[in-house]
Amino acid sequence: MIFNKKNSIKIDILLISVFIFLVTGCGFYKPVDARKVDPNVKKRVEKNIQEGRGYRLFGGKKERGGTFEFATSNEMWRASLSLLDFTPLSNVDYSGGIIITDWFSDNNSSIDEHLKIQIKFLSNEIRSDGIDVVVFKKKCDNSNKCQISKIESTLAREIKLEILKEAAKLKAEAPLADPDFKMPEMNKQ
User: Fold this and answer.
1) Any domain includes 25
2) pLDDT tens, 78-93?
3) Rounded Cα gap, residues 137 and 117, in angstroms
4) One domain for residues 89 and 168
5) Do 41 and 116 belong to one domain?
6) Rounded mean pLDDT of the chain?
7) Cβ proximity of 121 and 131 under 8 Å
8) Which domain holds residue 46?
9) pLDDT level of residue 134 (50, 70, 90 thresholds)
10) In a shared domain, residues 55 and 77
11) What is the DSSP string of the chain?
């Protein structure tokens, strides 16, 4: 095939036609009613940025998913860590809402008996249904075969109650976010 001026023009027309077809078919070009579009460019740009549309060079100001509080502002988390400071921790994940201790034994139990405490945070609020405490027991025999079981005892309830008490105390001692805020007086009936 010989490229001459006639063929070159046909190829140019074909490429332009394909380009226009692709651009209009992909949604890049959308006809707009001029009555609905603000003629002020800065206002249009601001509106597009607020709606999350548009193109930003170098990242711009883009909000990332989720909002996170620091662990120091969560009283339940702080109370739990304070209560479990006597034992090593094997897993502490604030974003996942879980604290798991390592296996430990107290002075009163036998040498082959160990406990592990797992605390799951179901809410940031100081409520009894906002925290779940589970205690596991590991008992090993002389041949180092161990049986692990979840124990149903008052220990889990006592730990949960102590965490809630300490968290309520920490919240009461915490300074208010707005120092000018005053608690409304309740009318006694």
Assistant:
1) yes
2) 899 999 998 999 999 8
3) 9
4) yes
5) no
6) 78
7) yes
8) 5-59
9) very high
10) no
11) ----HHHHHHHHHHHHHHHHHHHHHTTS-----GGGS-S-HHHHHHHHHHTT-S--GGG-S-PPS-----GGG-HHHHHHHHHTTTS-EEEEETTTTEEEEPPB--TTS-TTEEEEEEEEES-SS--GGGEEEEEEEEEE-TT--EEEEEE-SHHHHHHHHHHHHHHHHHHHHSPPSSTT--PPPPPP-
CA of 102: how far to CAs of 1, 98, 109, 118, in Å?
78, 13, 16, 9
For 2-49, what is each residue's pLDDT tens digit?
557 777 888 888 888 887 777 665 555 566 777 777 778 777 777 766
53 and 84 belong to one structural domain: no
* Burial (Cβ within 10 Å: 0-12, 13-18, ≥19) of residue 76: buried
Same domain, 13 and 92: no
Same-domain pairing of 165 and 91: yes
Distances (CA, A) of 104 to 59, 62, 131: 48, 46, 22
Let me know the angle formed at the C-alpha of 148 by 145 and 152, rounded to the nearest 5 degrees.
Answer: 150
Is residue 51 in some structural domain?
yes
Total-model pTM: 0.55
Same domain, 112 and 84: yes
As for how many domains the chain has, the answer is 2
